[in-house]
Amino acid sequence: MLPSEGAQALLTIIGIVDDQCVPVDRARRDRLERALLEVLPGEPVDLSIADAAFLMDGMDLTEALSIGLPWFEQVVMTAAFVRDALHEPWTDAEWLAYRDATNVRRT
Predict the structure, then answer these.
(1) Paired strand residues for 2
(2) What is the spatial distance between Cα 20 and Cα 55, in angstroms, rounded to a whole number?
(3) What is the pLDDT of residue 46?
(4) Torsion of the alpha carbons at 48, 96, 15 and 4, rounded to the nearest 10
(5) Are 50 and 90 spatial neighbours (Cβ–Cβ below 8 Å)?
(6) Sequence-separated (6 or more) residues with CB below 8 Å from residue 4
(7) Segment 28-48, tens digit of pLDDT
(8) How far is 86 from 12, CA to CA, in rounded Å?
(9) DSSP result, 41-97
(10) Which is more confidently placed, 67 or 61?
(11) How far is it, in rounded angstroms, from Cα 37 to Cα 58?
(12) 47 contact partners, CB below 8 Å, separation of at least 6
C-alpha cells in the first residue's frame, strides 16, 4: 500500500500512457484510475501486483519519452523512487512468480 499522496503521481503516469496512445488493458486502466480518484487523504492506496506492474511500465515510458530533455535526470530519480515504492509491497519471489505467470519482465 502506498500513501494517499502518491495517488496524484500515479494518475499522472496513467495520463502519460493515455497521451501516448499506448495500447493497454482498458478495463484495468479504468478501474485503477477510478480507485486512485477515490482515495481519501490519509488513506493508503491499495494496489495489486498487476496494477503496480502496469504503473511501472508507465514509468518506463515516461523515462523513455524524457530522454534528451533538460530535466531527464530528475525524471530518472523520480522514476526510481516510484518504482521502489511500487515494488516494495511484494517480495522478489512474488514478482518472479507474477512475471512467470504473465510473461512480463518485471522482477
Answers:
(1) 45
(2) 14
(3) 84
(4) 40
(5) no
(6) 39, 40, 41, 42, 43, 44, 45
(7) 888 889 988 988 888 888 889
(8) 15
(9) TTSPB---HHHHHHHHHHHHHHHHHHTTSTTHHHHHHHHHHHHHHHHTTS-HHHHHH
(10) 67
(11) 18
(12) 1, 2, 32, 55, 86, 89
The answer to whether 64 touches 70, Cβ cutoff 8 Å, is: no
Where exactly are the structural domains of the chain?
6-102
Three cell numbers written together for 5: 499522496
* pTM of the predicted structure, to 2 decimals: 0.82
Asked if residues 2 and 86 have their Cβ atoms less than 8 Å apart, the reply is yes
Give the C-alpha separation, 57 to 46, whole Å: 18
